[in-house]
Design brief:
With about 500 residues, the chain is mostly helical. The protein has helices at about 25-35, 35-50, 55-80, 85-95, 95-130, 150-165, 170-200, 215-230, 245-275, 275-280, 285-295, 305-330, 350-365, 375-405, 410-435, 445-470, 475-480. It starts with about 25 loop residues before the first helix and ends in a 13-residue tail after the last helix.
């Protein structure tokens, strides 16, 4: 009798399995850290205010509505087919293998870009703390939080550390995330709650009026930036093969999403009560630290900056975890190489893939040095990720609508959510295209801002072609992902 073959041919290796040990709160810790509310509030609100002015609360609320529709699609699809490949598997089966692969690819490249700029943000926050501690020079170099080179170098050291921690398993990673989250949220609630009470700027109903946003482009870009802030809640679905009950992944994702809404609204109102529009837009990457300085004296004023640092560190680790699980699912379908399906016999995790993601993110962080200021890196990265994530979410919503089309009432919400996100992304890309007449590597250049998401998508199409015609992946024939326990895993 011929022994069964592995997806790559040859004798099957010793079987190794992923450990099912996580509960709802573990999934919440991973998803909440991946969403990184403190980082989004500390950095994203300032960037968004630079686009929409003093309309942060309504922008955050409006962006939540289509994302909630996406979350319902995730929950329904997860009940139907729990698989760590999530959108890659669901879209491939319900719509098209090409679109399914693109969803998986977008998850990979968007997270790599996210990790690369968060690496710089982490370094920048540490440099700010160094200056607060009175370190005027280190090895003859003056700490400069606005320097992409210094921030990236320091941030890469942190990325290496958290990647090694993620290798040891989700239990240790989730435990670390819980402790970091408790501190972050305590600081956020304390400072933002205090800012709501004592802020010098009065509440205004105009903050909740979307019709007074400066332009249609500002509205679209503001919504895309806000969708980016919610991005990451679905990380709980990427570990649905490592939770005790797949339904726990859905609960964790929805709990995360509503928690983020509350925190973003609190942060939006507090920022606008304490800071003027010019202060909000002018302090982008240091927004939360600036808020702390306005509300307290040192050393208490440093707490928001410490919380931002913890959030950035946590989101680095949380960003690695779901991406590697997605690549694991793609590898066992032979749409990605065998490296990603190797399971550590000691830790029961895809260790080789985890290390690879960390290395790739560090390399991209080095490439980002072409933009000399942290603020420029953040703006370019966030806009690019926002555009491709809108497409990613829309495809998953359409997959849910196609799979459950026999129940018309369940189709309306995902279809509307997909239509809104596709319209926003398309309109924003059009405004980028028409806003410039030459190419320049700058976040102020529309063609550069359009080129970033375009490169992400084009490389995905090329990788899909390689998987179909060179790897000859059966995924492109059936559109189905491999069942979680159907394939022996490489130890």
């Amino acid at each position: 009798m011929t022994p069964p073959k592995t997806p790559y041919g040859g004798e099957p290796p010793p079987r190794s399995t992923l450990t099912r040990s996580l509960g709802v709160m573990d999934g919440f810790a991973i998803a909440a850290s991946s969403t990184a509310a403190t980082t989004s509030i500390g950095i994203g609100l300032g960037v968004t205010a630079g686009v929409v002015g003093l309309h942060l609360p309504i922008i955050m609320l409006l962006a939540f509505l289509p994302v909630l529709g996406i979350a319902s699609a995730y929950a329904r699809l997860n009940r139907s087919e729990p698989n760590m490949g999530s959108g890659y598997v669901w879209v491939g089966r319900s719509l098209s293998p090409w679109l399914g692969f693109l969803v998986g690819w977008i998850g990979l490249v968007a997270t790599v870009v996210f990790l690369s700029y968060t690496t710089a943000v982490t370094g920048s926050a540490l440099l700010q703390l160094a200056r607060l501690a009175g370190l005027d020079a280190v090895a003859g170099l003056t700490p400069d939080p606005d320097s992409t080179a210094q921030s990236t170098a320091l941030g890469i050291l942190v990325l290496v550390a958290v990647t090694l921690t993620a290798v040891t398993g989700l239990r240790s990673a989730a435990n670390l995330q819980k402790y970091l989250l408790v501190f972050e949220y305590a600081v956020l609630l304390a400072f933002c709650g205090y800012g709501l009470v004592v802020g010098p700027h009065p509440f205004s109903l105009d903050w909740l009026n979307p019709f007074t946003i400066p332009s249609g482009q500002a509205l679209a870009q503001g919504l895309i930036l806000s969708v980016f802030c919610y991005w990451g809640f679905e990380s709980s679905f990427s570990v649905n093969e490592e939770v005790r009950d797949p339904a726990d992944a859905s609960k964790a994702g929805l709990i995360t999403l509503f928690t983020m809404l509350g925190l973003f609204l609190l942060g939006s109102f507090a920022f606008q009560r304490v800071l003027s529009q010019d202060e909000l837009a002018g302090n982008g990457a240091q927004g939360l630290a600036f808020l702390g300085d306005r509300l307290a004296d040192q050393p208490l004023a440093a707490l928001p900056l410490i919380a931002l640092t913890f959030s950035a560190v946590a989101s680095l680790q949380a960003g690695v975890i779901p991406t590697v699980r997605g690549m694991f699912a793609m590898s066992r379908d032979r749409t990605m190489g065998p490296l990603w399906a190797r399971i550590s016999p000691r830790h029961g995790t895809p260790a080789a893939g985890t290390l690879a993601i960390g290395a790739i993110a560090a390399a991209v962080a080095v490439l980002s040095l072409v933009l000399p200021k942290i603020g420029d890196v953040i703006l370019a990265s966030v806009n690019a990720i926002g555009v491709v994530v809108s497409l990613y979410y829309a495809l998953i919503a359409l997959a849910a609508a196609a799979r459950f089309r026999a129940r018309p009432l369940t189709v309306v919400v995902p279809v509307l959510s997909a239509a809104v996100l596709l319209a926003l992304g398309g309109y924003l890309c059009w405004t980028f295209y028409t806003s410039a007449d030459h190419f320049e590597v700058s976040p102020d250049n529309g063609w550069f801002m359009l080129a970033c998401p375009a490169v992400m998508l084009l490389t995905g199409i090329m990788a899909a072609a390689w998987a179909k015609w060179v790897r000859k992946s059966p995924y492109f024939v059936t559109g189905r992902g491999t069942d979680p326990d159907a394939v022996p895993l490489t130890a």
